[in-house]
Here is the input.
Amino acid sequence: MDLVGVKEIGQMLGVSRQRADQLSRAGDFPTPVGEISAGRIWLRDDVETWAKAAGRYDKGADTGKG
Here is the structure.
């Protein structure tokens, strides 16, 4: 299971951590799978699926894979 937080989402989308946090609070963003002391966490695949559907997938950004 590959999990990501707001910082990793920002890297995936090519935006700041603050902007990623704003996006993650939007109504159509995937529901977090949990929360740890560092904050909310999501499944990477859920975020990638959302980003592609929303036209926000940044192919040049750091996906954290490989």
About this structure: The beta strands are 3-4, 34-36, 39-43.
